[in-house]
Amino acid sequence: MRAPLASSPSLTSSRWLTRAAVSLSWMLCLGCLSGDGGGADSDLTTPVAQFSQSKTAGTPPTVVDFEDESTGTIESLEWDFGPLGTRTEANPSITFQDPGNYTVRLTVRGPGGESVLVQENLIVIGDLPTAGFECSPLRGLVPLTVTCTDSSEAASEIVWDFGDGGASNDRSPAYVFETPGSFIIEQTAINAVGERAQQTTVEVVPFAIVSSIAGGSAPLDVVFSVEVGSAAGFAAWTIDGQNYLGNTISHRFAAPGTFDVEVAFGDLTDPNESRLNGTQVIEYTVDYGRGVAGFEPSTAAGPGPLSVTLEDQSGGAIEEWVWNFGDGSTCTFPDPNEPGASDPVPVCDAQSPTHEYAEVGSYDVRLQIRGPGENEGDAVNEDEAMVVDAIRVTALDPSFEGQETDAELGLGWITLRPELALVEATHIALEGSGASGDAGMPTDGTKWALLDGRGTDGSEEVDLIKNGIEQRIMPPADQPVLEFDYVLLYAEPPAAGTLDALTATISDGSTVVEIDSARTDVSAAYAGPSARFPMEDGGTVRATAVHTASVNLSETFPGATGPQFYTLTIRTTNALNELRSPRVYVDNLRFTEAADPILAAFSIEGGLPVFSGEPVRFRDETCVDSEVTDCVVPTSWRWNFGTQAEPRPPASAASDEQDPLYTFPEAGNYEVRLLTRLGDQESEATLFLTALEAHRADFEVLTAGPYLAPVSIEFGNLSTSDPSDPIAAWSWDFGGWGTSTQEMPDPVDIDQAGEVTVRLTITTDSGRTNTAEMMIEVN
Question: Would the pTM of this model clear 0.70, i.e. be above it?
Answer without folding.
Answer: no
